[in-house]
Amino acid sequence: MKILLLEDELEYQESVSEYLTSLGYEVDAVGDGVAACDKIASGFYHLFILDIKVPNINGFEVIKYIKSLNIDTPIMIMTSLVDINDMAIGYELGCNEYLKKPFELAELKFRVGELMRKYYSVDDKSVVLLNGDFSFNTNKRTLLKNGSMIDLSAKELELVEYLVSNLDAYVSIPELKEQVWENKDIEEADIRMHVLKIRNKTSSEFITSKRRIGYKIDAKKV
């Protein structure tokens, strides 16, 4: 499972990143808010761990950015701020856990583990089985193959999500422009490029295309 860590204090960043990696998590660590937003825009994470007092834009602004993208990934604030007003702001913005510095690594392990169990327990009703041993969790908005997550950009995820919502049926280019790209000026070649990138991350047969008809994703054949 993949975690984005925003922490500008190098000692904390290195120790937390190394510890979480030793527990089996994949960690992307950044030291400022702008870099965090860039990472969020380009890939999927199972958990955000955010310090508040960081350069460029603070952790509260990063949370606002996450919510503006309608991302429901759990958020943990990890900070030395202990004022009740700061805590209230964090929870009001949508954070799910608050870890005060300094802390024991064992406490970090427990809190991360609890969030992962709470948000990523398997609910069969939310899992759509797809052709080629792939599955899509509609609640968590994650694409997996044999239980391993496929790392998609935000727009790639939207495209897969829309095709899954129209399972086994071709979706036309004009419909994709309207529903996924919200009628923005995008060339058909750009849509084909997104499809190609998804196929490169999955398989050449994951998204089926038919000339002048569109694209589709097939349900798992029983």
UniProtKB/TrEMBL annotation:
Ranges of the DNA-binding region feature: 126-219
Modified-residue entries (4-aspartylphosphate), positions: D51
Limits of the OmpR/PhoB-type domain: 126-219
Record domain Response regulatory: where: 2-116
Keyword annotations: DNA-binding, Phosphoprotein, Transcription, Transcription regulation, Two-component regulatory system
InterPro entries, per the entry: CheY-like_superfamily (IPR011006), OmpR/PhoB-type_DNA-bd (IPR001867), Sig_transdc_resp-reg_receiver (IPR001789), WalR-like (IPR039420), WH-like_DNA-bd_sf (IPR036388)
UniProt KW Phosphoprotein keyword: yes
Top-rank lineage group of the source organism: Bacteria
Keyword Electron transport: no
Name this polypeptide is given: Response regulator transcription factor
Protein species of origin: Campylobacter gastrosuis
